[in-house]
Amino acid sequence: MKVFMLGWEFPPFISGGLGTACYGLTKAMNHLGIEVVFVLPQSVDIPQNTHVKMLTPRSVSHGNPAGHAYPELGHVRIKTIDSPLQAYKTPDEYQQQLQALIDLKRSKHRISEVHGQEVIDELLHMHGNDSLRSGHYGGDMFSEVHRYAGSAVRLALEEDFDVVHAHDWMTYPAGIAVSAVTGKPLVVHIHSTEFDRSGEHVNQGIYDIERRGLHAADRVIAVSYLTRNIVISRYGVPGEKIEVVYNGVESTGRPNWNFSPTPIRSDEKIVLFLGRITMQKGPEYFLMAAKKVLEEMENVKFVMAGSGDMMQRTIEMAAEMGIGHKVLFTGFLHGEDVQRVYKMADLYVMPSVSEPFGIAPLEALNHDVPVLISKQSGVSEVLTHVLKVDFWDVVEMANKIVAVLKYPPLQMTLREHGNFEVRRLRWADAAEKCGRIYDELLVLV
Q1: Portion of the chain with pLDDT greater than 90, in percent
Q2: Which one of 11, 28, 266, 414 has the fewest beta carbons within 10 angstroms of its own beta carbon?
Q3: Sheet strand arrangement including 387-389
Q4: Do 418 and 431 share a structural domain?
Q5: Could you tell me if 243 and 209 are in contact, meaning their C-beta atoms sit under 8 angstroms apart?
Q6: How far apart are CA 307 and CA 275, in angstroms?
Q7: Which residues contact 251 (CB under 8 A, 6 or more apart)?
Q8: 167 and 26, same structural domain?
Q9: Is the separation of the CB atoms in 177 and 153 below 8 Å?
Q10: How many of the other CB atoms lie within 10 Å of CB of 140?
Q11: What does the alpha-carbon distance between residue 396 and residue 223 come to, in Å, rounded to a whole number?
């Protein structure tokens, strides 16, 4: 089985759970013997001791596949697309181009080599305009998405594969185009919807791309039943087309902590928020619960690890609430700093307003940290040895935080049972289920 996989991030080019999920899934697929070509939107400087071979379009076109090796992923290659590239003029023109390709796919007629190259050249040389710019995501994100799609098509014509697998909305246009040009079945993997990220105030352009990708796909993979229900109700996708494949966690066994002492006093309890500081993650509810906890307990510090568009507002909110001296903002953490903050934590809290899955709670449990999560998260479907609360119920959230911090037996029980439970959530199971989905699609072709 050979898979042409489209993603927007992969370690070390990572800003959230998507990169972690792509890494874990491809590593497990590698162990199953599934060959994966992973296409990233820009060059990434990979250390020598990592486990994926990096191939740029330039090196491939010159017949020189040299790159850095990932020994653990012998069946995985990553191709990167240099940025910036040329963009599409408007979403309408982009849709017209793709519709022509989709019509050809439906008629089961492959584009000829000459015609195909003409279409690709036209896609790559169309220029964007200001109507595509999105202040919410910064820069010219829509144009980047469409540049990525055009170059992905060019790369796909150099590869031999059986199925196209696209992760999240930014790769859906590329997935549709590659599937249309090659005639290969398309699987779209939805890790987060625009309703999760923006609530009811969705970015219409992003929603349109998501909807187009979900309907164009031969099969949709959702990371939870929570997400599956949103895809059905908000995007009108038939339920029989959607498979739920839960995320896993990279098991590291019992952690071996070898870090220097932290500046936080030894008698202080640490409550950790680790994630993007955005509306979706509920940072304001974390702070409101923190204030209530501090009314009952003085020796507690609240660590907010991450960055996002609500960072400044959250800092100001902590100051306005009079708890600024009790809240530590670390910014985005990498590598050993993440392990270090887990070592410090007495409790991890994920108060997400809408969380399609949530890999961070699994990582916390894997590091022996008790977990409190919102009921509005996909991961709550698979975890039982954690505390759960409605994101908006800050009183109950505070009560449960206090209970864990005040009663060591409760903390110990959550830690021991949670660590044991998380071991059964394996990327191998997710990879096997994806493999079955691929097989089913190929039977239908």
Answers
A1: 63
A2: 266
A3: 327-331, 300-305, 269-274, 347-350, 371-374, 387-389
A4: no
A5: no
A6: 7
A7: 366, 422, 423, 426
A8: yes
A9: yes
A10: 18
A11: 27
Closest by Cα among 287, 308, 309, 290 to 298: 290
| Mean pLDDT across the chain | 82
Rg (CA), the chain: 23
* CATH, residue 188: 3.40.50.2000
Tokens in use for 380? 């709550």
Name the 3-class secondary structure at 327.
Answer: strand
Domain limits for position 174 = 1-248+426-445
The pLDDT assigned to 76 comes to 83
Across residues 141-158, what is the average pLDDT?
A: 86
pLDDT of the residue at 144: 80
| C-alpha pair distances (Å), 394 with each of 285, 294, 337, 399 | 6, 13, 28, 8
Tokens of 418: 């949670």
CA angle 184, 187, 190 (to 5 degrees): 155
pLDDT digits (tens, 9 = 90+) for 317-351: 999 999 999 999 999 888 889 989 999 999 999 99
In a domain, 226, yes or no: yes
Residue 191 lies in a domain: yes
Phi, psi (degrees; rounded to nearest 5) at 218: -80, -30
Write the pLDDT tens digit of every residue in 101-122.
445 544 544 444 444 444 444 4
